[in-house]
Amino acid sequence: MDQRDVKNPTLVDVAKKAGVSLSTAARVLRNSDYAVDARLKEKVNVAAKAVGYVPNLVARRLRGGRQGVVGLVIGDMLDAHYGMIAESVTKRAETAHSTFAIVCNMQRDPLLEIKYLRKLLEYRVDGIIIAGGGFDQWTHHGELVETVDELKRSGTVVVSLMPRNIQVPVFAADSEAIGISKAKFIVENGHKKIGILLGPARNDMTKQRMQAMTSYLSGHMVDYAIANIDSTPEAGARGAAEMLLRNPDFTALICGSDAIAFGAISHLRSEGIEIPARISVMGLGNTRLATLSTPRLTTVEMNFHHAGEAALDFIMSDNASSSQSSGEVIGHSIVVGETFASL
Amino acid sequence: MDQRDVKNPTLVDVAKKAGVSLSTAARVLRNSDYAVDARLKEKVNVAAKAVGYVPNLVARRLRGGRQGVVGLVIGDMLDAHYGMIAESVTKRAETAHSTFAIVCNMQRDPLLEIKYLRKLLEYRVDGIIIAGGGFDQWTHHGELVETVDELKRSGTVVVSLMPRNIQVPVFAADSEAIGISKAKFIVENGHKKIGILLGPARNDMTKQRMQAMTSYLSGHMVDYAIANIDSTPEAGARGAAEMLLRNPDFTALICGSDAIAFGAISHLRSEGIEIPARISVMGLGNTRLATLSTPRLTTVEMNFHHAGEAALDFIMSDNASSSQSSGEVIGHSIVVGETFASL
DNA sequence: GCGGATGAAGACAACGTTGTCTATGCTATT
DNA sequence: AATAGCATAGACAACGTTGTCTTCATCCGC
User: Fold this and answer.
1) Mean pLDDT in order along chain B per 10 residues (343 residues)
2) How distant is the Cα of B87 from the closest Cα of chain A, in angstroms?
3) How far is the CA of B117 from the C1' of C27 (A)?
């Protein structure tokens, strides 16, 4: 009877087939630097192929040590912003670290976020990238902090892609700096009366951007009206409509996300308003929506790809758990599209 | 000294703290239906909380049996089509099966798809949902078949969300039926001369839809011109431009995906062509792009959500590995938007 | 030719859990 | 009152791997 008949061949089966000990087979197939006689090595390799041996990562992981599984918690898989993050992290995991990323979609629900974190703890992942900011309700922030502490205590490396008032390294752009960059851009282009459509005010990043932006604008005699809305195209369209009523002669609309800007542009165009001739529009994030918009959206590149990669690289670095790193400030830059005009 | 100091407390620590045997602690914390004295139960629960016990899913998984981890291989995370699938599967995994889904992004690369499948095999996941169709190059189909066979042999339940000439249950819409539905819709609305922009011809589903559609159209005296392009908005825009040159008087543009349709609409509108007054446009998939398009796209709902859920439910069903099921044909329906007019 | 040094292969415990088997104490039955 | 029967708790092997320890043989120098 052929050994091939074994359902899920293990090292023991390989060793038996090759006529060597378990240890020897293990050493060969693990590519350990341990010295093994070339003849035996060959025999083991042949036997492994013959029985169809596939290493069991679960057993390896139980045995101990880093085994290359990280968790990624994202806010909303269908939001281009988080999609980019998920893409960059999973890609980097595969190409640079031959690692798996378990993607958890928290569906904009803070409670689900905590549930996923606990599950990832049970799963003993090597590290976790939290990219669930933007939907904080602050109703469960205490629980979140507690869960993160528990994770850190157990030796899991936790990082965040947004500043969220949790004690972990953060890989994110500087919200204040972005606020100022946008405000400067507005002033430099001569706009004096603008509308601002931001995401929910409960979000820390939004608040920081808003404060930096408005204080700069005030200092440069720019009139502005602000509305806080959901960060979706639909809300953006409604927001633009209301802004037109409330503040009819603004010349630029500054949006807190590309999604909002996209919706706003759709609405403005359907009202026959020319962009950017009559109203300039600016987004944030340089997501896929910026490219999909016609005309192409003027927006701010936030380097989500770089942030995701940097976060993963940090987790995978050998000294991550002992490191006192506070993360990295990710740079941003204005992407000039076709939706912004000088006055 | 408090037991709390233990880094990663195990059942042994809990048992020690509670003054019971390992087995008893295990039985309590696993919620086994095994009878345990209420007093001991209480003691164990208290001890578990005191030491901060968290079950180790890796050990559980090694021990054997289904443990709730499935793999999902998707074609392109940033494509709305696959995004919907990823969303529905991860959501269903969490809500209905308290399961993890490892999302693998094959980045439109057939070789990477195989690499991921092998890695999922090493990981001994309970099941795998392959949603990587659409990018088949056929250059590596043999390897794919071999890998899938290996997976099945090892006891992994494999299903596909697209028909791909691999011997696994398929949960997908009937491509021929969709082709006919679309063709019928065109005929019923009185169009006589149309343009067709489909995805890459190497794709089986595309081919089936195309054949069914064209044969129906021919049978109803409808003139058509076909182009096969990439399934992206950018390609859709270029495709529409070429179609205008090649076939200037068509009255409807039938697209093989919402992405193509979105790009086509953008281009047509920027050329000053009124939609649907001058040209009607139809997409496929009813993805987020259909909603984002202005005017709202007329398209075909393919129930990706239902397909993903059905596939996952199948994997999680107890008899999945022994079942001879061939999957499920997912229904489709035309979604009437604002981009299609009757002549 | 013998002792020590070197190199390669085998034995074995451990990772944390679970199911089975065994041991024990208790109740119920004749 | 003795034993069968039952309920409950503990002991233990197993899952597949890896690192360490041990064993064994070979080779070299004296």
Assistant:
1) 62 90 88 74 89 92 83 91 92 89 89 93 93 76 93 92 92 96 96 95 90 96 95 95 93 96 94 94 95 93 95 89 88 96 92
2) 6
3) 57
